[in-house]
Amino acid sequence: MAEVDSSSTTTTTTTTSTTEQQNGLNRIKMGDTIILNINNGDNYKVVKLVQGLQSHVVGKCKKVDLLQLIGKPFYSTYQVLPNGTMERTNQKDIEKELTNLIQTTIDADNSKLTNLNTTQKLTEDDIAKMKQKGSSASEIIKALIENSDSFHTKTEYSQMKYLKKKMGRHSTVVKILKPTSKNLIESYYTKDPKKICNIRFDTLGQLLTLGNVKAGSNILVVDSSMGLVTGSVNERMNGDGVVLSAYLGKGPSLSIVQNFGFSPEVEQCIIPFDFSSINKLNLKEPESSKDLKAINYLKQGVDSLIIVSKYSPLSLILSCLPYLKPSGSFVIFSLYKQQLLECNQHLSTNKLAVNLTINEIWMREQQVLPKRTHPMMSMDGASGFLLSGIKVKSLTHDEKLNKQQEQQKPSAMKIDQAEIEEEEKDEKENEKGEEQPLKRKREDVDGDDDKQ
Amino acid sequence: MLKSKKIIESGDRVIVYFSKDKMSLIDIKEGQVFNSKFGSFKHNRLIGSEYGSKVNSEDGKGFVHLLHLTPELWSCNLQLRTQILFNTDISTILFNLEVKNGSKVVESGTGSGSLSTSFIRTLAPKGHLYTFEFHEERVKQAQRDFGANGFTDYVTVTHRNVIQNGFKLDDQQNMIGHIDAVFLDLPSPWDAIDHAAQVMREGGMLCSFSPCIEQVQATCLKLDESDFEGKRRKKEKRKDNIKTVEVLIRNYDVRLQEEEILNLYNPYEPNPNAIQTDNNNTNNGDNNNNNNTENTSTNSDNGSTTTVATKQPYKKKRWEKGSSQPFTLGPMEGERKMRQLAKPESEERGHTGYLTFARFMPQEK
Q1: For residues A166 and A248, is the Cβ–Cβ distance under 8 A?
Q2: What is residue B365's predicted lDDT score, i.e. its pLDDT?
Q3: Average model confidence (pLDDT) for chain A?
Q4: A197 and A323: one domain?
Q5: Residue B121, domain extent
Q6: Are residues A91 and A153 in the same domain?
Q7: How far apart are CA B113 and CA B81, in angstroms?
Q8: Are residues B106 and B124 in the same domain?
């Protein structure tokens, strides 16, 4: 019981210390990174608030000083006025304003709708003039309705749809998002999914749980998602653990990590290093001093391995696997099932891993409205594929000893064994030089004996 | 479950893994024996083994692998008391609730503790899970499980009907206004939303899991009336700012399957010799035709990899060896070979539930 008591006091102390932080947690401070979600649409903007920040173009407004947001809460919504000031509003107020404009007509239906552009009497020039005078969006929309012949003949739903469309065109509503993994993936996935390896939010979520990401772990991440995966792993561990982020190419490309706005203590958990160091390690080449820290962690072994890369995953997983501790989880993302099948085949045949699973996710969003609930008309069908598994040691202690004896004096009884060995020789002869030592090293680290 | 160890000791909880659908959770204790279809294993022999290692049974019946317990393996091995959530839903919930080390999370109900375990893995050691369950026996079992898994410091299990009594705990005053995420798996989640709002911090996330769409509708209406908002849709800019999704997993059954290929004449290939009977051949159309198929297949049968290797840049792998067998079908000839093929599992879940997400943003006063 005494143990339980002491533990409960420790919990309370940690809670009080986080309480102070929590009060300011949702407020925007100088130095924070914010995501602007403009008009609820495809348009996202990531901005870091620094002293002397230049004014930004936000939607229709050319000059908006974003520093006026300091002290405001994250996830608040603003109407951007033509003069560049931001007025706090919320979605519900906007809805209310629009609802007031609806003219309910009994018996309205869409039977008289035409595709001609003659129903609107207001011209582009008129609207431009109104904007110059500084009319608000709702004033413009009011004018549009007054000059429309067909508006009042539409159904209520159609009217609302029309208003929302016009609202989006003539006003700028901005929501300020916090740069969390969830919001960052949303903004990058909508803007340019290629940049982040086409990884979708639900797949990233799977990746983090299947990779058993938890505080206190050392995790090896092979990342070609501009740092999104590295950052998400680091966000979960929140300063407790090590993320070894291997980059492929000239230098680390972790620009998204900067956008997470980690504190220095949390950010220092990420150790970027050149993937070729792993290759050099496998080849037993002299170590470069540059990545010594990462190499030391690798030699100790990592708890989990996550691979999100545009390169074919087989060679990557094989070169990383020696550094994953036995019973450690690994997960590989690929857009293509075939690449993962290849990995699965290699890992299962060579008995390097168990619980191998290839899966994909089917995700569908629902529109939920009274009497109008249905799945969304368009859905994203490409979640990509995940191969997950647990690394094991392929031989028991006894088998290892037996194998050593067999190798010393191969008997006629052991044809299979001899054959396998012979084939391995052939394989090695056929292989290119770079793969050969890699394989040897893998067995070294696993603790299995070299077959030669 | 939270610490990773190298060597198995007495008192550890270990997964004994035979295959994907056959594994057991055992508590290692000196002097005990674990008996199964795959043989018997003395615990004394398991103690001192490395995690991830392979162990043969005493009676030579088979072998197993010894694995660390993870929340994912726990979900597959726990004693079911209720319908539980599995990894696909769990991952989506954790990600959208933005749970991380340090988060304070409220969950109701606890059920069998499958989701709770994942919550704790992710929020420990700096965070805390407050989980509520109205069924007393489940509360006790959950407490036992959390204790055995080493979670005591990170979780508070409370026996309570939250619809009536809410989430406030008398001895945890500082949880009010500081809860980062709330998860509801209740028959009437809409009745718990006001309670949730009382403990949540500004900008916190709420998730409700419901199997029925009617429940989702009522929940969304209630959320919309309360101080919750979500992301409005790209195309449908209607009064709907709360996100509801369903996620289903599609697992692939990957097997080494026998594939039968008939050596037929290909009328579309200008070179009549160029029928590929061997997958390994990618660029050598002159290798096989109907006349010399027998030769090639015997080659690979004998394992004379050297001759094959000179012709083929692709190297023979161990699992392909000897797998190519000639066969006849009436007057036709063909080849039988093993290949890894994948198909979706025939038995899959068609539906688990709808996940509704919303963010708590109280109006400025």
Answers
A1: no
A2: 53
A3: 79
A4: yes
A5: 76-249+350-360
A6: yes
A7: 9
A8: yes
pLDDT digits (tens, 9 = 90+) for B154-190: 999 999 999 999 999 988 877 889 999 999 999 999 9
Q: Summarize chain B as % helix, strand, coil (round to 5).
A: 25, 30, 45
Whether B50 and B164 share a structural domain: no
304-343 of B, contacting A, C-beta below 8 A: 305-306, 309, 315-319, 321, 340, 342
| Same domain, yes or no: A411 and A372 | no
Q: Decide if B213 is inside a domain.
A: yes
Do B183 and B47 share a structural domain? Answer: no
pLDDT digits (tens, 9 = 90+) for A323-335: 999 999 999 999 9
Say which residues have a Cβ less than 8 Å from residue B76's Cβ, sequence separation at least 6.
B23
Tell me which residue range forms the domain holding A292: 191-394
Q: Does residue B341 sit within a domain? A: no
Pairing mode, strands B200-210 and B179-184:
parallel
pLDDT for the residue A56: 81
Asked whether residue B87 falls in the same domain as residue B208, the answer is yes
Any residues with CB less than 8 A from the CB of A310 and at least 6 apart, and which? A197, A224
Q: What is the pTM for the complete model shown?
A: 0.81
Which segments of B51-131 does DSSP mark as H helices, in order?
Answer: 71-77, 87-96, 114-123
A253 and A333 share one domain: yes
Is residue B317 a part of any domain in this protein?
A: no
Is A446 a member of any domain? no
- In chain A, the residue whose alpha carbon lies closest to the alpha carbon of B231 is A40
Residue A12, in any domain of the structure: no
Burial of A443 (0-12, 13-18, 19+ CB in 10 A): middle
pLDDT score of A11: 37
Question: What value does the mean pLDDT take over residues A398-406?
Answer: 70
pLDDT for A280 equals 86
User: What pLDDT does residue B286 have?
Assistant: 41
Structurally, chain A folds into a number of domains equal to 3
The kind and range of the H/E element at A430 are helix A415-430
If one counts the domains in chain B, the total is: 2
Is A90–B363 a contact, with Cβ atoms under 8 angstroms apart? yes
Whose structure tokens read 């869409």? A110
My answer on whether B43 and B191 are in the same domain is: no
Asked if residue A333 is part of any domain, the answer here is yes
Select the more confidently predicted residue: B314 or A126. Answer: A126
> Are residues A69 and A210 part of one domain?
no
> Is pLDDT of A420 > 50?
no
Give the per-residue pLDDT at B100. Answer: 95
* Predicted pLDDT of residue A408: 64
CB within 8 Å: B95 and A210 = no
Give me the DSSP letters along A92-150. Answer: HHHHHHHHHH----TT--GGG----TTSB---HHHHHHHHHTT--HHHHHHHHHHTBSS
Name the residue among A389, A334, A364, A355 with its Cα closest to residue B350. Answer: A364
Q: Which of A366, A398, A399, A435 to mutate: most B Cβ within 10 Å?
A: A366
In a domain? residue B286: no
pLDDT of res. B207: 96
Which CATH number characterizes residue B27's domain? 3.10.330.20
Residue B105: per-residue pLDDT: 97
Cα angle value A50/A56/A58 (rounded, 5°): 130
B positions 181-240 inside 8 Å of A (CB): 201-203, 213, 216-217, 220-221, 229, 231-240
Contact B320/B308 with Cβ under 8 angstroms? no
Ramachandran quadrant class, B55 (left: phi over 0; alpha: psi -120 to 50; beta: rest): beta
Residues of chain A with pLDDT > 90: what percent?
A: 33
Residues B321-337 have a mean pLDDT of 82
What residues form DSSP beta bridges with B247? A363
- Is residue A248 included in any domain, yes or no? yes
Domain endpoint, select from A176, A202, A232: A176
**Per the CB < 8 Å rule, is B94 touching A325?**
no
ipTM score of complex? 0.82
B334 is in an annotated binding site: no
Residues B27 and B156 in one domain: no
